[in-house]
Write a structure and sequence with these properties.
8-stranded antiparallel β-sheet; Elongation Factor Tu (Ef-tu), domain 3; Rossmann fold; single chain; 610 residues; disordered N terminus; alpha+beta
Length: 610
């Protein structure tokens, strides 16, 4: 039975060798490590003498040699500080170089597939011929498809344990192919034995009924995915460097280009802020400046106009389709936490290099990836469920819908410092802050920067521009606390200012002030945030008081101010459900209350401890 018909391509010349990333997955004990070990041996890709060393160790311990032991040996060397990456295995054929990304087969380690497999161009999926298709085999297949990997090679391993039986092989192929068909995926199937090497690097005389390619031939027949240079430019900002020696004032924006290309002279637009400038130079480490950088390259940009850009923004090109920006999105999410994902708990979402607090707003439907059974309208996402759901972030994030630009359309969910879920973004949804972000983008496009940058002010003042919101019920001492905080920080030499909301209501808001009415509350808060934004751009620590702020009020303010440092102090015994950084039951004694606010700013790195 022949499952694939492609022949082995001719070797390429050494000067044109290409590299391909392949993820390998499989249920625990289905022989994935044995397959990897056999590939290393048959392609002569092991360190010199490593095979003989492991064989001798087995002989001395009266233990039969297994190819899986080779991976254990490499892991031991890694633990001793030797530079070998046991999660990524390297081997080569005459055609190309390969990196095998190892995705552990046990259910609890499926999280590695969300992160490790996301850059793979093809997948090897190993199924034990004796055990057959297992739940993990199906879950791995689902996740491979969800990650957009369309080239799949299924290895029906351990054919020696079923006496090379063609009927057993064909039954597994038929069952798993039906499952993949339901997912809209296709795969090539190969009967192999990692232990004996049959059909790995050379054909098998024990399976004359199979006339297709070996594993190595099947890998070499895979198509290399071209760099996505013709897609819209996307570069998540990894960091921003500033050099101060010899009067160097450059801010160097660094990141890896996911898609597209950028050239010197291009106008770049950053999302979600909407700020823009022109590329002045494209820098490279220990190399002359370049005129162009393309997808896959780690890149450093300098800009004609020095604008404040933070880690997590996504660089795009003007004139190309922009990123989506919203605090709500519809997603397909694979949940791997031991407990369910629930609506009443905050989590952390990571998209590209950005991270933000996120809540589960609604579960539209769930599906078990092992049997594809669907349940509608649940209140939580259970262990191993795949959910179509709505997620609500604390503030607007930049992303793409996965069908438009895949790398910036993926995300992971973190809980208790561990990845618990991951998925793809289906579409952006409207949110209550969109009208505010539209104002902010107009402001940022037309913003006129002075000669002194924000970093210069932070260095001079030894502080980060920060908004401290003091809120709570009536008559709890908010203004007294805010003024005392201002006085203490001013005495310490800080650049600080107290702003009561009345200063705005009866000044810049005088035209919309309506006594006793909440009709203009969102616009009041937007204007407050705009005044705050100017003072924050001047490098200040700004202490603002406002009565009874709600979560939607905080979300609006955060959407409008151009600093990541916004901290909320709730004052009083009245309970609150807003996201806060500090609760003070009383303003008395005021010195103790001020101490706690100051400690908060020190702990957050706004000011240094002296």
């Amino acid at each position: 039975m022949q499952e694939t018909t492609a022949s082995t391509p001719q070797p390429t010349s050494p000067t044109s060798r290409e590299q391909m990333n392949i993820v390998i997955a499989g249920h625990v004990d289905h022989g994935k490590s044995t397959i990897i070990g056999r590939l290393l041996v048959d392609t002569h890709s092991l360190p010199e003498g490593k095979l003989e060393q492991v064989q001798e160790t087995c002989r001395r311990n009266a233990k039969p040699f297994e190819y899986a032991f080779l991976l254990d040996a490499l892991k031991d060397e890694q633990a001793q500080g030797i530079t070998i990456d046991s999660a990524r295995v390297f081997f080569k054929t005459p055609r190309r170089d390969y990196i095998i990304i190892d995705a552990p087969g046990h259910i609890e380690f499926l999280k590695n597939m969300v992160t490790g497999a996301s850059r793979a161009e093809a997948a090897l999926l190993v199924i034990d011929a004796e055990e057959g298709v297992r739940e993990n085999s199906r879950r791995h297949g689902y996740m491979i498809g969800m990650l957009g990997i369309s080239q799949i090679v299924v290895l029906v391993n351990k054919m020696d344990l079923v006496q090379w039986n063609q009927d057993v092989y064909e039954a597994i192929v038929a069952e798993y192919r039906r499952f993949l068909d339901d997912l809209g995926l296709r795969a090539d199937f190969l009967p192999v034995s990692g232990r004996t090497g049959d059909n790995v690097a050379s054909g098998s005389p024990r399976m004359p009924w199979y006339t297709g390619p070996t594993v190595l031939e099947a890998l070499d027949a895979l198509s290399k995915r071209p760099r996505p240079v013709d897609q819209p430019f996307r570069m998540p900002v990894q960091d921003v460097y500033k050099f101060t020696e010899h009067g160097d004032k450059r801010r160097i924006i660094v990141g890896t280009i996911e898609t597209g290309r950028v050239r010197v002279g291009d106008q770049v637009v950053f999302y979600p802020s909407g700020k823009s400038s022109t590329v002045h130079t494209i820098e490279a480490f220990n190399a002359p400046p370049q005129t162009e950088a393309v997808a896959g390259q780690a890149t450093a940009l300098t800009l004609e106009t020095q604008i404040y850009i933070a880690r997590g923004e996504i660089a795009t090109l003007a004139g190309q389709p922009p990123c989506r920006v919203s605090s709500r999105l519809e997603a397909n999410l694979f949940w791997m936490g031991r407990g369910p994902m629930t609506k009443d708990k905050p989590y952390l979402i990571r998209i590209g290099t950005a991270k933000e607090t996120v809540h589960l707003e609604e579960v539209l439907s769930t599906m078990d990836a092992a049997d594809l059974n669907t349940t509608h309208r649940k209140d939580a996402i259970e262990h191993h469920d795949v959910a179509e759901c709505v997620l609500q972030m604390r503030r607007g994030m930049a992303f793409d819908e996965v069908g438009q630009v895949a790398p910036t359309g993926r995300f992971v969910i973190v809980d208790d410092y561990e990845i618990r879920g991951g998925g793809i973004i289906r579409q952006a949804l409207s949110d209550e802050q969109r009208w505010v972000r539209d104002y902010v983008m107009q402001r940022n496009v037309r913003w006129q920067s002075g000669a002194i940058g924000r970093d210069d002010r932070a260095e001079r003042y030894s502080q980060r521009p920060t908004l401290v919101l003091v809120t709570g019920g009536r008559n709890v001492g908010k203004k007294r606390l805010a003024r005392a905080v201002e006085a203490r920080l001013f005495a310490d030499g800080r650049v600080v200012y107290f702003l009561g909301i009345g200063n705005v209501l009866y000044g810049v808001d005088a035209d919309i002030k309506t006594p006793g009415s909440d009709a203009n509350r969102p616009e009041h808060l937007r204007r407050l945030a705009e005044v705050a934004n100017v003072l924050l751009d001047a490098g200040m620590i700004l202490v603002v008081t406002a009565i009874g702020l709600r979560q939607e009020d905080l979300d609006l303010i955060r959407a409008a101010v151009d600093v990541p440092s916004v901290y909320v102090v709730w004052l009083g015994l009245e309970p609150t459900d807003i996201a806060h950084d500090l609760i003070l039951p009383s303003v008395e004694p005021v010195d103790d209350a001020v101490d706690q606010v100051k400690h908060l700013l020190q702990d957050k790195g706004v000011i240094f401890r002296l």
